[in-house]
Structures are given as C-alpha cells and as structure tokens.
Please model this.
Amino acid sequence: MKKIQIKTEGLTGETLDFATRLNATLGDMNPLDAAGVAMQVRKSLGGLVDDDTGDLAIDPVMLKELLGDSDKSIRSILKKQGEALTKLTAPGKGSQAGFRSTLDSLMPELETISRTREGSIKLNVRAAVIMEMGDAIAAGAAIPEDLIESFSFAGFVEKRRPREYVFDMASRTTVASIAQYKTWLEEGGEEGAFALISEGELKPLVSTSLVRNHSEYSKVAAKYVITEEFSKFRNDAYNIIKRLINQKILRDYASVLTTKLIADAASYVSSALDGQFPAEKITDYHAFAAVAAQMETLEFMPDMLIINPQDKWRIGMAQDVSGQFYLTIPMTDPSGQTRMMGFTVRSSNKMTVGTFMLGESGLWNIEDETLSVRIGHGINVIKNESLAVTDVEHDLDHNRMRVIVETFFHSWIGTTNAGAFVLATFDTVKAALAEPPAV
Model:
C-alpha cells in the first residue's frame, strides 16, 4: 500500500513543521480511512480546521496554493526570503543600493500591488514636478506581499540639513508687514574738538553731521503645483510636504542672506602683527588673532567665529611641542557653546575649508515678515526641445492648483559698521604674519 506523504522538498519554517507532523501521523494510515486522515490533518493544521464540524476553515484550493509551487505560495516566499537574507548578510556587499536592488529583483509583481493598494508617490528633489497621487511618495524597495498588511506608520524621517548661522550673527525682527523702503540716519563727519580754555578765552567751534541711508525690500518666493486629488486623498503626505516646503523657504532665505553677508564682508588688510613671527611657528590661532586685531583697531569687538567643521576639528586637535592640546576637547564652555580664543564658534559647510569669518554679532540688521501662503490657479506653458510652445494647460482644466510661498524682508548694515565682519583665509593671513626672509 502506498503511503500518504506530502512533499517537503523546499519547505522551511512552520510550513516544513506542518508537513513533517502530518507525514509522521499519516505514514502508517490506510488511505481509505478518510475519517482518520481528516482527523490527523485537523490536528496538524490546528486552528485552520473548524473544531465543531471537522471541515477546513480555509478553501482547499487556497491551501493547495499555499503549499504548492506557485510564486505566491508560502514555500516560494520563504525560499526567496531566505536567499535574499543570505545575500544581504554576505560580506563585501552591504550597500544600500545593493540591498534595494536585491529586494526589487525578488518581488517585481509587488510594484503593481503597491500602486493599486497604497498609491505610488515620488518626490523628485532634483527637479520641480507637479505632485500627483501617483507621483509624490516613492516606494523605497519591493516588499513581500504577505507583509504589506502588517505595516504600521512609524513617523517621518527628515534629511540632515546644513547648519544656518546667519540669524545668530544678526539682529532680526519679524513684523506683520514691511514697507517698500526703510531709512535710517548714520553718523557722518565731525569737525573741531573740545579743549581746555582759560577764562574769557574763545571757545573752539565743533560740528557733526548725519547721513541718511536706506534699504529697498527684497523677496524670496517659489510655487508648487498639486492635484486636488493629491491634497484630498494623500492628506498625511501633503501635510508633511507642506511643512518641508515651508522649511525649505526658510533655508533658502538664510542661504540668500549668507551669500549677501559673505559678499559684503571686509577682507583682512593688515595689523601690527604682520611680519612679526617665524613662519614655522605660525598657527591658525595667529590668523584669528591678526583678524581680531584689525577689527579691534577699528573699535569693533569680534565675538563670533564662523568656520568649516573640518577646520574646527583640525584646529581643535592641534598640539604643542610637548604634545599638549592647545584647546580643551571638546572645546565647550559650561553653557554648551563651542568656543575658541573666547569667540563663540558656529561651524558650517557653507564656509569653505581654509576660510573663516570673524564678526561682531548684532550689527547686521534683518527685518522680515512671516511666511505668506496663497493658493490659486494658473497656466503651464509646454515647450519642445527647440523651445517652441506646443501646448498651454490651465490648472482648472486638469484639477490642479498652485501654492505660492513667499516672504518680504530688509537686510542692511550701516556703512559705519562695514568693518564689523571680516572674511579671510588662513593661508593669506599667515603669510602676512611671517617674518620677511633674511637678506
């Protein structure tokens, strides 16, 4: 008599355990004993059989597919997952790109399932696109079909952003509305001087003057276009994107101000320290001191140092001839502020390596409005490669709307404070400090 046996080739995990238990109990049974076989199948299946009737609680066709050879069977899924895990844990190929490529190759059919069940969204950070339901959230990698329903939303992970330091150096005021022009008075030239005089002696004449200066408004603005369906049916994603865009305008606004600050900063000219030190003994600290000496000669009081993080840690790890560090690592005071030579340090990748800025904070003025957000409709002009117009689309015809985000601001520094910020390179200042070569 032929034994009743379920094929176990390729089975793993709980599927293999189920088949093994069933084969062990059915091995010596008579195939014609239907009741006995059903009882043993029920025991092996456990909760998959109705305890009252003894009938399978799932469709037999589904059970066959579950244990069969199709691509959607548990055996196939577990086998593919095992192969994937083996590849992912193999040494030498642990990159994110390899991980994503491996998973994508496992379950290509799940791309369709993902799109029809949850929607496929891509946020193209390199070029502006119209954000639609199927074009705002990108699936990071293909996933096994039997895991989709077990997902829970774990929150949102943002990218690391460049450190913005401009508002630390400025005196910033946010107002409800700004005027087109802002004017102020600066101290001009003066003549004469007070002096000691004798009784009846003619008093000296003194005078001073004022100079009117002004700032014209500037504006940073951009727009994004979304479909009505996206804002309606992808509400969570849309709220995140709105927040990201509002944060982006603030970052880009700060970047504009940073560019202006660097462009307007004075350069190192000279100080009494020039030509006073042997070249081999000049350190980066000498460069800071020379720039500070130039500023203090002009009656400015530098208190903030802007430096690239690579330079900050290179300087922080500098040692003297005895091996002692010049600065206490990690270079922070009790308040948690990083300091060098008494200056508050702000490190930023926007300051190029080998360049630094010293400034007296608070002398640069910024007045801006809160962000303005407006929603409306417009047109899209479509051009071909030769820039000839091929079509004109109105948002209303395509269920689209555009959102404009902008802010107006004034940014100024009095001409009398022009030397309050100095941009310099280590090499230039250190070269000026070196003693002239011996004749």
The first strand starts at residue 170 and ends at 175. The mean pLDDT is 77. DSSP finds twelve helices and 15 strands in the chain.
